Amino acid sequence: MELVEIVILAVVIALAAVGLVGGLVVGSRRKKQLPPPPPSTPTITPPAEPKVGEEAETPRDEARRTIDEVSLPDAVAPAEEAPAVETPAPPALEVPEPTEGRLVRLRARLARSQNSLGKGLLTLLSRDNLDEDTWEEIEDTLLTADVGVAPTQELVERLRERVRVLGTRTPEELRALLREELITLLGPDLDREVRTEGGAETPGVVMVVGVNGTGKTTTTGKLARVLVADGRSVVLGAADTFRAAAADQLQTWGERVGARTVRGPEGGDPASIAYDAVKEGIAEGADVVLVDTAGRLHTKTGLMDELGKVKRVVEKHGPLDEVLLVLDATTGQNGLVQARVFAEVVDITGIVLTKLDGTAKGGIVIAVQRELGVPVKLIGLGEGPDDLAPFEPGAFVDALIGD
């Protein structure tokens, strides 16, 4: 009995110990709550890969058509083509005025300079008493008009002698007297034709020289119009490579009358361009080649030497027919200084006087001819394209002294 009781007591004690331990464990768990479990990641099912063609759906039994039974779509009408951009036609060539009688047609412009020279002389000569003071006034009038000292003295002496012999001095007689003496001073027998004939197989070659500002390039373009008006074919050589846009200016003049312009790069060798221009003129069978040279300052020796080089290079094709010096009529005696220097470098054969319109300097025609011993062949009387006229002494004097 005692042994049984001892066993039962041991079992009870063991159960009590187990219960105590379990209570302690549960209490500690209540004091320290575990963190909530992380949310479960949803399962994403990727979309099925799209199928193409017959795999896009479950094949079905249906009637199939042959290629002959399939109708083709209607042909798409081609897009309308954009209308072609019309290239503008080249400007119509201008027809220059004929040169015959051109100076007579421009007489009104030339007559603007008559107040100081022609009408002034007639007024003085019409005085009742032609004393020494009056003759001095006549000399001053001639000098102011740039006739020059020697020609003025010569003209006054001849007028004094003829007035003394004539006795009576009606306006008609004085006008006829003055007209005759002025024409005599202008040299009516001088050859004023611009020579452009050239040789049997070479064109006529004309070189145009002058100082900047005299209208040299413009004169070259106007001379091309004069020659075209006379039925000649012309090639222009733009050898003025030192002045900006000089070649463009000359080319514009040429295009207006159908004359081709030979040009080179800006700042290029003028002699080379002049040579090429003559070469092109020979190849094309042109009648005349006009070479526009740089407007060099006559005080710069090196540049003047280069002008001589241009002349020598051009002459490798043949002799020059003309060397025209362009002078501004308003520069007076300064123009004569320029003329002397140019004449030393190249053999001047003719003179072109520009800006004679609206000026009282008409007497420069007489002075420059006397200075160089070469004739004035052309005169410029305005800004119009056909305002360059062959010089005619009779028409020139008539414009100066009026009717």
Could you characterize the architecture of this molecule?
The protein has 403 residues and is of the alpha/beta class. The chain has helices at 2-31, 102-105, 107-110, 118-125, 132-144, 149-166, 171-186, 216-229, 246-257, 270-284, 301-314, 333-345, 364-372, 393-401; strands at residues 204-210, 234-238, 260-262, 288-292, 322-328, 350-354, 376-380, 388-390. Strands 3-2-4-1-5-6-7-8 form an 8-stranded mixed β-sheet, sandwiched between helices. The protein is elongated, with a radius of gyration of 52 Å. It starts with a helix and ends with a helix. Mean pLDDT is 78; it is low at 52-56. Belongs to the GTP-binding SRP family. FtsY subfamily.
**Strand percentage:** 5-15%
Tell me which oligomeric state these chains represent: single chain
Summed up, the helix count is 14
Radius of gyration: 52 Å
Short description:
The protein has 403 residues and is of the alpha/beta class. The protein has 14 helices and 8 strands.
Topology, pairings included?
Elements: H1 2-31, H2 102-105, H3 107-110, H4 118-125, H5 132-144, H6 149-166, H7 171-186, E1 204-210, H8 216-229, E2 234-238, H9 246-257, E3 260-262, H10 270-284, E4 288-292, H11 301-314, E5 322-328, H12 333-345, E6 350-354, H13 364-372, E7 376-380, E8 388-390, H14 393-401
Parallel strand pairs: 1-4, 1-5, 2-3, 2-4, 5-6, 6-7
Antiparallel strand pairs: 7-8
Biased composition (Low complexity): 75-87
Family: Belongs to the GTP-binding SRP family. FtsY subfamily.
Keywords: Cell membrane, Cytoplasm, GTP-binding, Hydrolase, Membrane, Nucleotide-binding, Receptor, Transmembrane, Transmembrane helix
